Amino acid sequence: MTSVLPPFVQAASGSLGAASANALTYPLDLITTRIQATEKDTSIRKQIHTYGLSSLYDGIGADTSATLLSSFLYYYVYSFLRALVVRGNGKSKAAMLSLPQELAIGYLSGIASRSITTPLNLVTVRLQTARVSDDSSPQGGTSRFTAVCKQILREEGLRGFWKGFSSNFVLSLNPAVTLYLFQQYRSVMLKGKERASPPPGHSFVGGALANSIAVIMLYPLLLAKTVVQASRRSNSTNSSSQGPSIRSSLQGIYTTGGFFALYRGLGAQLFKGILRQGTAMMVKQRIEQLVVQAYLRQRALRRVQHKG
């Protein structure tokens, strides 16, 4: 991500790319979440047979909103911080930074975006798992979204909307590592103009590979976060009853199923990630190319008018 475009353009292109990829892969995302949260054997065909075609899009409104907001904030903060570091080092805007610098910028950007979008992510997980987790939330539309929000507020208070947020202090490395590996792919596999503006095929492959490596590195924490967010506080009269924490979830998964249980649903996660991240990078790069082309055409037109 060494684009020299303004932060707003990078943020807008990144969020549109992420939203497009989210819409394309949403049924896979829903199935993956249900596998992670409930340990139940499920498939797209089974979901359609049991709950109908519309069930594959439970929570898509909340998830798309979270994706747009999270991606916009991430890319905006990232490009802004990167520009500050590059300017301070006296380098060109497209210059490669050191590994610690790139990871630090990506990490801070991830924390900033996730701190704001965690409530929407939590509601999305609840909506995605309601049909298979004995959740009594009403089904259908906006009323269901509102009901889940009220349920969280009633059971756990305002802080409940940031349930599982502690995992983000590690999981925020995921987008940072993904972007760094994507840059390395560009620097190794591409040359000249293609390195500055990768073709769609290379954007897809580079984004997919980078995301897959990052996901494998941090997957147990991603799994634990989903388990925590899908859980509800016990309705017991004991007011001190607490839901699972990230640590207790990891311990419970390991104790019950061993080491490989920490990677349940990894295959679906990787397949979804390949399509999502690859598509997101491809769309983002294409939008940026169109912006640059439009700018160059406008500048050429102004020169012609000035000469005239």
UniProtKB/TrEMBL annotation:
Keyword hit for Lipoprotein: no
InterPro entries named in the record: MCP_dom_sf, MCP_transmembrane, Mito/Peroxisomal_Carrier
One Pfam family per UniProt: Mito_carr
Start and stop residues of the Solcar repeats: 5-84, 97-188, 198-290
Membrane topology: Multi-pass membrane protein
Gene Ontology molecular function: ADP transmembrane transporter activity
Record has ATP-binding as a keyword: no
Organism the protein comes from: Suillus fuscotomentosus
Protein keywords: Membrane, Repeat, Transmembrane, Transmembrane helix, Transport
Transmembrane segments: 160-182, 202-224
GO cellular component term of the entry, any: membrane
Subcellular location: Membrane
Highest taxon above the source species: Eukaryota
Protein known as: Mitochondrial carrier domain-containing protein
N-terminal signal peptide: none
UniProt family annotation: Belongs to the mitochondrial carrier (TC 2.A.29) family.
